[in-house]
Amino acid sequence: QDPTAAHYMFQDDPFLMPRNAANSRLFSLSKESGRNAAKYIIKQFPQYFDKTFAEPNIPCLMPEILTPQIEGLSEEALKERIHLRRVKDSVDLFDQLIQAGTPVSLETTNSLLDLLCFYGDGESTPEKEDLEEPGVNASEQKAPKREFQRGSQPSGSRWRENNNAERIFKIMPERNAHSYCTMIRGMVKHGASAKAYDMYIGLLNERHKADVHTFNALITAVPYLKERFLERWELAKVFLNHMAQQEVQPNLLTFNALLKTLRRCGGVGRSTALLVIKEMEALDIEPSLATYDHLLFILYRGADLCPSDIISEVLDDVGKRSFTPQDPDDGMDFNISDNLLCLSLGEKCCDLKDIKLAYRLNKVMEKGDNWKFLDMDRLNAYWSKFFSLLCMMEQIDVVLKWYKEMSSSLFYPTPKNILDLLQALDAANHLEVIPSVWEDMKQLGFNRRQDLLEELLSLMSRERHPDEIQLAFAKCAEEIKAVHEQTRREQSLLEWTGSALGHVALLFSRAGRTQEAWYVNMMEHFQQINRIPTDQVMDEFLNCAKQTNCPDEAIKLVKLAASLGLPSSQRLKNRTEKEFELSEKQK
What we know:
The longest helix has 24 residues, at 21-44. α15 (341-352) packs parallel to α17 (376-393). The protein is mostly helical. The chain has helices at 21-44, 75-83, 87-99, 106-119, 126-131, 164-171, 177-189, 193-205, 212-221, 229-245, 252-262, 266-282, 289-299, 308-318, 341-352, 355-365, 376-393, 396-406, 415-427, 434-444, 450-461, 467-485, 498-510, 514-528, 535-547, 551-563, 569-579.
């Protein structure tokens, strides 16, 4: 892998190679926005895409036919509109068929309910279609992918009162288990948990049986039906007992839904989570990434309350195989899992400060296609945490090796990563690398970050280094000075601080650049911004003036110290008289 190459999605256009994580996010979202715009244009203006010019014609590469081909009032026309996901057209045609006295079969009506419950009685959009592919039979679908946001109540029910789904359900001459199950799953999906529970009671009263997907949805809705932790667990057990009574075999999504509910059951969840995992093993159901994520969230409560052996056991199990997506919370969907397994494990490794555990996690993440579970944002967040831990715990040579291989290829360093790297260089006394870090800061767009500039200047000016390094540091100081002085229409002026001004003066002085140290920094800026230079700055400048034999600059320094009322003014005067050959006028 080329360590200088950007992510493969940006390689179509070199102009769009991102500089930092913000650019990467912007460009990736722009590409996705362009795809959605193309889908919208094709859907809104299908007449411009109905001609086939390709030879040979490859149907899978051509746009779908999205315009209804069957005209008139018929059940076949209704089926076609349901298949094309035309929500409003399907409802209108159904109403016309009912008004005309044309019976609609139970199967077709259930298909219409599937459509309405999936889209929440709203029109289909490309974004909704990307989230899940709704089949004609809801019981054949996997599970609703956009459920409640983890750890928070729904922002409000998106299920309108007496919407088309409810209206059609009420006027159905006969209803089977599929009708009830579709309504329950639609209500849970769109935030009407209480109505879904009432619908489930209606299903039981009609002596129907729910399918496994319906039970999964109901278990997911438990935290919104009960307030107390113990009551939530008791209601979840009720649904599990009903599954046993109705001879419904649980699947992976059932246990993941149960663990997801236990995440919001406090101590009850911590005491029962491992029992759920043992039950999965007894039924020979292999966990998915979401299973481990839920388990760690339940059991992990900070580094002091969670020994690393729990994470180690999870890594042992995860490291034995490569994963494929089986649950929406496995991380394939953009808005689903905020605590994806690799990301949450990375946080926990940082909390535990366990570098060996972090290396094991990284090995698991790179195994097979596991990295695909992280989108661009999460991948960058994962590598950022991993690199911060490296800076904290590893030898500097190892840190620099990882930095060279990772930067701009696997991830874009954040300001915190650069700060961590600078601190690692300081701890290892490898400050000669700072000029290359400054070049990276300019490339990443961090050359106006006040905190990074202060840390950079502080490290470069703290001690005197060999001449070659001092010249490199002075060049960095010159560029930092230019950043403070440049003014662009869209950028505000970067203000000097007293410490930054002093550091730049020191770096110029040590490099023998007396004129720049005086005119550019001290005389002009210290007085302008009403700041007091430190004694170290004054002494270093006087030393520089002595080395370059500039008595005039030394006299100006003494005058500046006197005008600012510095206690060191007399000492500087005595040094100047002693160390310089002054004319009568200068004396």
